[in-house]
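Hi,

Apologies if this is the wrong queue. I'm a grad student, and the batch job for YqfO family protein from Gilvimarinus gilvus produced an output file that my downstream script rejects. I'm not sure whether the problem is my script or the file. Here is the sequence I used:
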Amino acid sequence: MYKLVFFVPGSHLESVKAAVFAAGAGRIGDYDQCCWQIEGQGQFRPLAGAQPFTGEKEQLSREPEWRVETVCLDDCIGAVRDALIAAHPFEEPAYDIWRLADV
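Support response: The file is valid. Your script probably expects a header line. Output copied below for reference.
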């Protein structure tokens, strides 16, 4: 099993969650669409070749974003990652995938 953590602006929170859930994330026992989320602030500086969703090139930006944590079984983690990237508005979304210990 894996844990997926991603960061997304509020404007796309529900659509990105729907995409990763449709690909198989968020299943825990007899429940689906399980996640934990909290709003925070992301920081970034788009460099010369970037096509930022928000912010200006070469300028430091801080924007409200949501951190979403969910789980995913081994057999669908690739599809879930692909769904996240396809649904996300950023050209390079920030995300972590952690393999969970089998205890």
